[in-house]
Each structure stands twice: as structure tokens, then as C-alpha cells.
């Protein structure tokens, strides 16, 4: 099954994991990290 991007209003994809090197501050690319509550 293909993974679809940008199909909802929110940018959250609960069934998607991404991994990257910890040498870069990836959170700096986000305007705001939404709460998962």
C-alpha cells in the first residue's frame, strides 16, 4: 500500500517514522510541535 502525503489538514502521520542523524537540530525546521494529547 503506498504511503500518501499531504492528504489531511494536519501534518501528523501517526503510522509514519522518520530517522535522521542527531547532529542536526531537526526541530528547528518546525514552526511549532503539536501536542499529542
Structural overview:
The protein has 37 residues and is largely without helices or strands. The protein has no helices and no strands. The N and C termini lie far apart (28 Å).
Considering the chains and any ligands shown, give keywords for the structure:
0% helix; 0% strand; 37 residues; little secondary structure
Number of strands: 0
Tell me the helix content. Answer: under 10%
- Assign an overall shape: extended
Secondary-structure-derived class: little secondary structure
Report Rg. Answer: 12 Å
Query: How big a fraction of the residues is strand?
Result: under 5%
* Structure annotation, total helices: 0
Mean pLDDT: 76
Main β sheet profile? none
How widely separated are the two ends? Answer: 28 Å
The low-pLDDT segments are: none
Summarize the structure.
The protein is mostly loops and 37 residues long. The chain has no helix or strand.
